[in-house]
Every structure is written in C-alpha cells, then in structure tokens.
What does this fold into?
Amino acid sequence: MSLFWIVIRQLAEIEAMATSKKVITKEEWEKKLNDVKIMKEDMNKLVMNFLVTEGYVDAAEKFRMESGTEPDIDLATITDRMAVKKAVQCGNVEDAIEKVNDLNPEILDTNPQLFFHLQQQRLIELIRNGKVEEALEFAQEELAPRGEENQSFLEELERTVSLLAFEDVSNCPVGELLDISQRLKTASEVNAAILTSQSHEKDPKLPSLLKMLIWAQNQLDEKAAYPHINDLSTATLEDPAI
Amino acid sequence: MPASASVSSSSSHHRASPDLLVRLGSTDPEVKLRALREVKNQIIGNRTKKLSFLKLGAVPAVAAALDAAQSELLIQSAAALGSFACGFDAGVRAVLDAGAFPNLISLLSYPDDKVVDAGARSLRMIYQSKLAPKYDFLQVENMEFLLSLLSSENEPFTGLGASIIIHSCQTDIEQNTLCHAGVLKKLINLLEGSLSQRDGSLESLATIMKDNPEAASKFVSESGRALSSVIDLTKDRYPRTRLLASMCLIVIRNTSPCHLQDIGIKTKLVYLLLELLDDPGQVGEEASFVFSSLITQKEDLQKLAFKANALDKLHNQLLNYSSHPRRFQGILLVLADLCSNLESCRSKFLSLKALKLVTNALTNDNADVRAAACICLRSVSRSIKNLSAGHFTNEVIVIPLVRLLHDPCTSVQVAALGAIGNIVVDFTTHKSTFVKCGGLKLLVQLSKSMDPTMRLKALWALKNLTFLADNTCKEGILLELTTPLLSSLICDPEASVQVQALALVRNLVDGCINSVEYAFAENDIILDAIGRQLQSASKAEIGIQGMYVLGNIASGNEFHKDAVMHQLIPQVNDGDCSFIVKFLRSNDSQLRTAAIWAIINLTFPSSPGASSRVIKLRNAGIVSQIKTMVNDPSVDVKLRVRTALGQFMAFSDGSA
It folds into this structure.
C-alpha cells in the first residue's frame, strides 16, 4: 500500500533527525503532511475495497457511479454472499448452507472446518429453539461422524451438546455458544471462505492500514513528541504533549 | 425454482432414503429437481452421506439427469456428481461407472454459462483423483481443447485445464507435446491470474518440467519474467501459493541446476519450507514432501538445513503430529534425507532422543509411516560410529524391525530390509540378538521371494550379516540358507541379485581356512555356479564380486587353489579365451584389480604347487597378458601387477 509507505518514510526521516526526543509542532507536522502526495484514485480504491469486502453492495454501486472506481469483483456476487451471511446471522443455517452450495459446491466440500462450524451452528439453533430430540438426533447423525474424523471437532461437539445438560443455559459455562456473537463468528467464517473461493482477499485493507498507523505512532513516540491522531474516526491532529 | 430450497428442511438431515431414489427417477421435473438438490445438499462436505447414497445406488440416478433438457436439472446433477467425486475415490469410480464422464464433457459446450461452469467444476473434481481416465494429449483435438480451457477467462475452465495436466502428464513425450503446443505460454499468463489460477498454473508447470531439462529450458526462455514471477510467488501472502511456487523452483533446480545458480535461492527455499512446515493444515503436510525433494541426495542443501536448525523443528513436529499419518510420514522422510549423509545430523538426531520416537513409529498402524520409519533408521544407521556404539542393536529396535519383515505391505518389508542391512553390519555380539529373534530365518525366506527387489534387499542384508562374522555365525547362516539355494541365487535371473549373492559368498569364504570350505559344500555346487556366472558375466560388478570370491578361495590350501585353477583354465579348451583374460582386459579398473588379486593368491611363492600353476597360467596366455599391464593407468592395478610379476619371476627360467 503506497500511501502507508509514504507515511512510514516520512516518519523514518523524522526519526533519523531526532537525536533526543524532538518536539514537532502542529504547524510543522501539517506542512510535512501536505508534502505527501496521495493519489485520489488510490484512496477511492481503498474505499471500494472496503465496501466490496464488507458487502455493502448498494453503497459500492453508488460509489462506483460517483467516483468512477471499478470494483475488482462482480457486484452481483456480493448480493449472494450477503444473503448467505444474513441467513447465518438470523439463525437460518440450513438455508445458508444451501445458498453456499448453489454459489459454489466446492466451498463446503473442501473446507471441513467451515462445514463443521455451520453444522455446529445448526445444532446450536435447534437447542436454542428447545428442539431437544431433534438436536440429539442431528448431533448423532450429522456431527458425530465428523467428530470421528477429527479430534478437535469432537471436543467442540461435546462442548455444544453439553448445552443440553443445563437448566439455565444463559448462565452455564458454555453459554457463550448461544450468544449472538457465535452466529456472527460463523457468519464471518462463511463470508471469508466465499471471498477466498472468489480469489478475493478475505479482509478489507483499511483496518490493517489503521493498525499500521497505530504501530507507527507507537514507534515514533519513543523518539519524538508530535501531533497524534487519537480519534481514528475524525483523524484530528492533537497538539503534542510536552 | 430456488424457492423450493427449504421445503424439505425438517427432515433433510435424515438418512439417505430409498424414497429419494424414487423421486430422483420421477418424470415430474419439479420433483426430480427437488430430489437432486436434496442429494447435493446432503452430501456436500459429508463423507458418510456420500457413502450411504453411493450404497443406495443414487449415483446412476443422479447421472441420468444429465440427459435432461432443463438447465437447472443439469446444474444440480453436475454439482451432485462433482461432490460425489470430491476427495472420495469410491465416488469417482461410481460416477465413471455410471457413464457420466462423456455427458459432463458435453455440458462444456452448453449454451448456458451456469451449466458450463457446473460441468467444468465436476470434471475438475474427477481429474483430482487418480481414478480419472487418462487424458490423451497426443490427439490433436484434445490438445486444442486443453488450450481453449487454459485460454479461457473462466476460472472453472482454467482450473479444469490445470487439473488435466497435473493428472495426465506423466511421460517426457507428453511433457514435450504440451511444451510444443504452447501450453507453457498459457500457464505463464495464468501466473498473473487469480489465486486459484496461479496455484493451478504453478502445479501444472512443475508437472511439465519434472525431470525434463528441455521443458525447463523452454520455460525459462519462453519469457524473461517467467522465472522471476515464480520466484516472486514464493513471497505470496497465501501459504499454498508459496508452497507451490517453491515446488516449481525445486523441480527446475533438480532438473537443470544451471537456471537457478543463485546461492541465495537455496537458503531461501530451505527457510521458506521450514516455515511452511508449521502450517497446521494441508500445506504443512505437503511441505515436508516438497522439502524432502529439495534436500534428497544433496549434501549442500542438507548442510544448509542443518544450520537452519531443521532437526529441532522436525523433532518438535514428530512430537506433535504422531497422530497425523501423512504428516508423520513426511517428517520421517525429511529426517531420513537429512541423516543420509551428514554425521553431524545423525549425532544431533540421537542427542534429541528422536530415535525413540522413530522406533515407536515402526509399530504405527499406517503402512506408509512404518516404511518411512524404516527408511529413517536406515539413514541414521549409515554410520560406523553409531553402529559401533550399539545404538541400534538392542531388542527395542531389532525385534519390531524383524517383525516388519513379514509386514503385509511390500514397501514396508523392503524398507525394513534396508534398515536391517545396515544394522547387522560388523558387530558380532549384536548379530546374535538379530538371529535369536528370528531375523535370519525371515531374511532367508525373503530371499526366495518372487519380487526381485525383495530378493535383492534380503541378500544384501544377509551379505552384511556375514561380513566379518565368526564361524558359528557363518555356519548358522549357511545352514539356514542352504547350499542349493545359495547356488541358485548366484544364477538368479536378475543381475543385481547375482551380484549380492556373489558378495555374500565372498564374505562367507573370507577369513580362516575353515571358511573357505563353505564354497566346497555339496560337491562344489557353489563354486561351479560361480564359474558359470563368470563365464557369462553381463556386468562388471558380477565379475568383480566373483573374482574376489575366487581370490579368497585361492588364499586357502593347495586343494583350494587347484579348484580355482580349474575354474580359470578349464580342462577342455574350446578355443575361447578364459574369462580371466577378458577381465584383465576390461575397462573397469576394479575388475582388473579383482582379477589380479586371484592370480597373486594362486602364485604365492611359499606354496608348494605355485610353480606348476605359474606354468599353467603361462600356457593359457595369462602371464603374458599381465606383462602388458605394467603401466596400467590405475595405480592400484599397477601395484598388483608388479606384485604378480615379482612372484612369476621366482619360478621363471630367466625368460620371464
């Protein structure tokens, strides 16, 4: 990512100058920042990459029209992917599985861990809905054979089935499985697998760029006092603390 | 149509039901479609379900839908067949038996893109199995079709093209045909493509260039950036791509090292593969085999790997992955490669106490793991130092190794013979452990095997067991082996077996006078067999071992020496010169040396019959032959020739 490296290079130059902890005022800093040339197209690509990866299909479409930035993937595939993700988030796991299989039957056939997690989520939903008998049957028929193939699946299966042993599941050691966050975890795993099958990176670039920014600021803190960005959502430069 | 997807949801996780079979055969396309989707959604990702549907006979019913005219039916049928074939050989066989293959091929020219994609995906699954029919690249229309697949924008097509190459390109004729048809160019273009296209291209390139210098040169010269793009891909973010790129570079290096002269690349590959070994999934598993192909028989790379602490890493992996058969096998093979030449690796291996882990692997449930453990033991025991220290001759190792001699799997037996061959070398006290636990009996049994490799390895181990053994041990060996069997092995149809049998006799008759007697048991049948073999020797190695046997016998008493003379100079001369003259004129200096040694032992001046033997040798033209050899290019031969001539002089009438 060229933008990132430009910033890093600037930081490195400053670092080289600093013999002791140097103070850089907001004016000096802003002047330096203004010297950094960033292509508008690169910024647009970054935004488009975020919208596509996160599945904001309408926003991506609008952004494409407004900025002329072409997405690197057919936007129609985003709709399908989002439908799968949404189905998992709503607890319709079986529906999600069928949709993934329609999209590309190889995904679940070649990804045993993901397949297991989806089946596990199905079991969790059955337990959540109080369908004890069906849950037990499902665990035996569908999940037990996977547990035989893989030790860690077996452990996860045992943990999930133990949900049935508690009266008050919201207050038991494995209660987190029933939490909405478990659905989100499974949904994002499916999302990532579909993206990979479409030869697309599974994470957007923007968050990792922000992580690099924080890392770079921390590195620089050792050497200099300079205007920090503390609030990433506004990116305001704050006066250096002396 | 997809609206019907969730209709059957409440019962869809039940067992494969015969009712479903009826619905698959329904004439109502709606019912049929629902049934096809149901099968597909049940079997994807689920091996157990695949098997139970298979047993129910669902595959032919699903395949029958490929005759349909509706796109949706074709898509669902193709997808279900592809899933049956995915990672499941029984499924591939069923799909092929149902005759679905040609119908899937014809889907590729269907007017609906979704049908085409589904067909290509299914075919790709089939081509990922060994059971897929071999693709004939030599037919012009097949090659055109393959090129059209590889030129396509469509990922399932390029993926299918790559799978076909990886599956069916085996001989150098096929490799060259692909090169000449321009496949390399297409694959190089795909290196710039999507993730799956890059991976498919790298694996295909490795397949085409393997052991084929012509193909490797063509690849390198095809475009200036071809090689550098592969090098760049070793730094890719996806581990699988990094692995395949390094595999491709290793193939190029092993095929024609001139294209990758850079020293740095060796170090990079070593570190990259060591890093990939850490991958917990399939990449880590395959990385060990790729690593093995990098370092096998390459001492410089083994040194680099040693410096990079490969042994520590592999030792950790042995501890962590003993329950993953394929990975375990791969790690053992890499250890075997590392310890095959370097003593430093072997001592590190022993200091890490890895021997115990490898010994445990001898009794693993998986045959490939057992064989790999034997190969590893063989490498580690290729060391006089470690053999002398008796690291391998305790019962903990010897007993399971001997048991593996009657392993149901031939490759395990052969590998066990290899390890035993090293372990029985040299050290008398330990030989008894081996014999006591029944090892000798089994070796003799295997020397009668129908399989020539087995006979070869068994004899090789017996030969090493006989090496410097005491008389009791030798007697035991011959008693078990029997004279008739030994003489028939000397005349084995395989030359390599003959060599080992002769070498065994050489060790047997080595040492004191009593030892020499073994060659004369049961009416000299062993000695006669040796004479016959030497007369018709097809390989220098046979002559070498045979002449050393005669040389050892000629070091015995007068009777022994005369018997050797009898073999060298037959009573009835049919005009042909004796084999010894042929050997003395051989291009192989080792053979010349072996031949002269026998003559030296026959003409040793202090023995009473030496004088008459020199006369016989002179009459047979052997002495004059040796005289022509005083300036032999081989120092070894020259030295022996002088000794022999000196001995002849002692009996000469002054004219010698």
